[in-house]
Structure formats: structure tokens, C-alpha cells
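Action item from last meeting closed. Structure (310 res):
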């Protein structure tokens, strides 16, 4: 039977795919992989559909034993890997034999690494997705993070797969102090001049209070006009930046709620989601407002690259 055994699960490892985008109208978060670009690249290497479910590892890696021959792809935070205690490289197709043990020892750059296995996981779809939604305790593997000793079934895959590689120039690099490009939010006019100046000129750092729902930021407070931070509950998207009354911004992430009641100062552009998803507590960031034309141009450039890996 095609399956794997989780020897070491790591800090926060879950099953994630492209998410549940069709159910926000009934209050179900989209969820899915935090770094969709990394997920697609990993699935390309494993010969899967681009949004097939993979293991998303956060901050630390997993150790996995394979019970059958397979092919895998590992993409993300520049991990150090061994296969049967021998060093191997990520960002290329890795051929697996029954009994092999893969150990993701260290994550060197970024926060999240994705392991895709040819054929994908034999897990039930819930609302069209295998993604784990931890707050709802559903999807993925029993609705929870992976644990040491878990046995996960794998779907049958093609017996032969042409070995693939991600070009070096297409491997994402995380800058030391990323500048996230943003578009103005619908409540931008609800902030003072000083508040907007702080937001656009001062560095912020990710608070320890960060998870798949949202990234809280530490830094200069962003002032509201008339101390009014509340709005009628309105839609929020991946990358929406809300500012509650305390003035510390929160960036909405994959497991965000579908609506929110705090002023939305900006939204990170789609092309910068992969940078955003790879941030970890303590990382410093800055924001730069750009035009819609620039945001669309950046997204088209990213999509042009990703067509090579689909």
C-alpha cells in the first residue's frame, strides 16, 4: 500500500492545497497553502496538478519514511535535506524507493517548506479541498497538525516521471528587510497624516503573535482620525492590512476570517504574497505604495514564470 510514516512532525506541519475559495459566502475561510507559488513548484516537481495537497512545514522540517517507490518535490525556505542520511538538494525531482527516509534538517531562509508527493494524499475532500483548517478542526489529516507516528495514505502515481528542476533564476529569494508593495485600502482616508507617514516610512517587525490567520506587526502606531478604528464588517482578502484601535497593523493570511470590522489601510499586492508567506517572527519589513498598473505588471510577470511549472 502507498503510504508514508511521519517519524518527526516538526513544529507545525499540516496538509494544505489550493484552499476553499468558493465558500466565503457562508463564512468558511479560504485556507490552503500560505505560499501558493512554492506549492505549485513542489507539485510540478512531483508531477501533480499545481494545487494538489502537500505537507506545509513551518519553521522546522519533518522526517518521513516512505513505504513505496515514488517521486517528490521539496520547495520553500531553502531547507537542508538528507535522504538515508545523504545530503540532497531541494528544488528538483527526487526519486524515492520503498524504505527511504527523508529528513528535512534545517530551514535556512524563510519560514515555510512544502513537500509534494507524486499522486497526492489519499484524504477526503471537505468543501472541495484537503486543506487543514486548524481553528475548525477539519480537513487535512484529522483536522490537526501532523504528529510523530502518523501514517498517511498516498494515491497511486505514474510509475515513471521525467526528473525536473526549478531554474536557479526562478528560485525565490527572501531579502534581509523585504519591502512589501501595497495598494491603498478602502479606509485609507480614515488615518491621520502622521499615521500614514509612519506606515509608509518606518520599519515594522513581525510579532511573536503570528499564525496562519494573521501576522501582527510591532512598530510605530498608526493613528486614526477621531480615534475611530471600527467599520461595518466588510470583506477581507489575503494580504489585507487591518489597523485596530491600538494602531498596530495586522496582515490577514490564509486562514483569515471572511469579513472584518477594522479599518483596512492597504492590501499587499498578489505578486508579493510569496515573500509575505515566508516571513517569520522578528523579521523586519517596510511598505511601499504602488499603482494598480504596477501591481498588474508584477503579477503578469510572476504568472509568466509559473506557466513554466504547470
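Sequence:
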Amino acid at each position: 500500500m502507498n503510504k508514508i510514516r511521519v517519524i518527526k512532525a516538526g513544529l507545525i506541519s499540516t496538509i494544505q492545497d489550493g484552499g476553499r475559495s468558493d465558500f466565503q459566502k457562508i463564512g468558511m475561510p479560504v485556507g490552503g497553502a500560505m505560499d501558493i507559488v512554492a506549492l505549485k513548484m513542489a507539485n510540478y516537481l512531483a508531477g501533480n496538478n499545481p494545487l494538489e495537497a502537500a505537507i506545509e512545514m513551518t519553521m522546522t522540517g519533518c522526517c518521513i519514511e516512505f513505504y513505496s517507490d515514488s517521486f517528490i518535490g521539496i520547495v520553500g525556505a531553502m531547507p537542508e535535506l538528507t535522504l538515508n542520511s545523504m545530503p540532497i538538494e531541494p528544488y528538483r525531482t527526487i526519486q524515492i524507493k520503498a524504505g527511504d527516509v527523508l529528513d528535512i534538517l534545517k530551514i535556512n531562509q524563510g519560514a515555510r517548506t512544502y513537500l509534494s508527493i507524486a499522486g497526492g494524499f489519499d484524504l477526503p475532500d471537505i468543501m472541495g479541498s484537503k486543506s487543514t483548517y486548524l481553528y475548525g478542526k477539519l480537513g487535512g489529516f484529522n483536522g490537526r497538525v501532523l504528529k510523530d507516528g502518523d501514517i498517511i495514505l498516498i494515491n497511486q502515481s505514474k510509475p515513471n516521471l521525467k526528473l525536473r528542476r526549478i531554474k536557479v533564476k526562478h528560485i525565490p529569494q527572501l531579502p534581509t528587510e523585504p519591502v512589501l508593495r501595497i495598494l491603498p485600502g478602502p479606509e485609507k482616508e480614515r488615518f491621520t497624516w502622521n499615521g500614514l507617514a509612519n506606515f509608509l516610512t518606518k520599519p515594522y517587525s513581525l510579532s511573536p503573535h503570528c499564525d496562519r490567520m494573521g501576522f501582527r506587526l510591532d512598530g510605530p502606531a498608526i493613528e486614526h482620525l477621531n480615534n475611530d478604528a471600527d467599520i461595518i464588517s466588510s470583506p477581507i482578502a489575503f494580504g489585507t492590512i487591518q489597523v485596530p484601535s491600538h494602531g498596530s497593523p495586522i496582515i490577514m493570511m490564509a486562514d483569515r476570517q471572511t469579513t472584518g470590522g477594522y479599518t483596512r489601510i492597504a492590501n499587499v499586492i498578489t505578486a508579493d504574497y510569496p515573500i509575505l508567506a515566508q516571513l517569520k517572527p522578528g523579521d523586519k519589513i517596510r511598505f511601499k505604495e504602488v499603482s494598480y498598473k504596477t501591481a498588474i505588471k508584477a503579477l503578469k510577470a510572476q504568472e509568466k514564470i509559473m506557466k513554466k511549472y504547470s
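Note appended to the action item: The longest strand covers residues 259-268.
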